[in-house]
Amino acid sequence: GAVVSQHPSWVICKSGTSVKIECRSLDFQATTMFWYRQFPKQSLMLMATSNEGSKATYEQGVEKDKFLINHASLTLSTLTVTSAHPEDSSFYICSASFAADTQYFGPGTRLTVL
Amino acid sequence: GENVEQHPSTLSVQEGDSAVIKCTYSDSASNYFPWYKQELGKRPQLIIDIRSNVGEKKDQRIAVTLNKTAKHFSLHITETQPEDSAVYFCAAVRDDKIIFGKGTRLHILP
């Protein structure tokens, strides 16, 4: 149980385009979903926290107009990287939670911006 | 906010020997401390965790200790095996927010 999926697993796009990443909890309803970014050989950095039906809470230094998060249902959250640039190339990982403390991670999406 | 320091950044141990990774945290309100193992290009996997009301926890070859007073916690892996090679992250959690350490790259030498 507690499976989280992400789609796509990898994406390559041109600079200036927008990319949408989906995060789904497959067998549970997630009250909270989290989005992380991981650059090569670095740790996971929390970007934002989202609760179903409400606006996401962004961490300091994360541009909310660039990284649009929509949490439309208890099983789906989306992250849209708008006007992507090469410096946005990274591994994006979501997680979902239905109980205090425990987060279930998705498999990640590798974004490469040319 | 919370700050988690992790050492060492790289660790090489002979197969069969023990590995120890140490972390410190700054926010005394953090009450949950998970450890994750991440293989290249994959999601972090929870391998063991400890809550602030417990001092030690063991699961087969893996153990974690917590010193709340000193704000230290450590991961111990005994009888290391080649499949233990990976990056390990400690983390501190407060109010559902996970703050990760910078990671330790563990190499198990044959």
What does this structure look like?
- The complex is a heterodimer of chains A (114) and B (110).
- Chain A is mainly beta and 114 residues long.
- Chain A is 0% helix and 52% strand.
- Chain A contains no helices and eleven strands.
- In chain A, strand 7 (67-73) and strand 8 (76-81) form a beta hairpin.
- Chain A is globular and about 40 Å long.
- The N and C termini of chain A lie far apart (37 Å).
- Helices cover 0% and strands 59% of the residues of chain B.
- By secondary structure, chain B is an all-beta fold.
- Chain B has strands at residues 4-7, 10-14, 19-25, 32-38, 45-51, 56-59, 62-67, 72-77, 86-94, 97-100, 104-109.
- The mean pLDDT of chain B is 95.
- In chain B, the strands form two sheets. In chain B, strands 2, 4, 5, 9, 10 and 11 form a six-stranded mixed sheet that branches. Chain B has a five-stranded antiparallel sheet with strand order 1-3-8-7-6, with no helix packed on it.
- Chain B contains no helices and eleven strands.
- Classes of the chains: A mainly beta (114), B mainly beta (110).
- The A-B interface holds A 32, 34, 42-46, 49, 91, 93, 97, 100-101, 103, 105-108, 110 and B 32, 34, 41-45, 89, 93, 96-103.
Mind sketching the topology for me?
The complex is a heterodimer of chains A (114) and B (110).
Chain A: E1 4-7, E2 10-13, E3 19-25, E4 32-38, E5 45-51, E6 57-58, E7 67-73, E8 76-81, E9 90-97, E10 104-105, E11 109-113
Parallel strand pairs in A: 2-11
Antiparallel strand pairs in A: 1-3, 3-8, 4-5, 4-9, 5-6, 7-8, 9-10, 9-11
Chain B: E1 4-7, E2 10-14, E3 19-25, E4 32-38, E5 45-51, E6 56-59, E7 62-67, E8 72-77, E9 86-94, E10 97-100, E11 104-109
Parallel strand pairs in B: 2-11
Antiparallel strand pairs in B: 1-3, 3-8, 4-5, 4-9, 6-7, 7-8, 9-10, 9-11
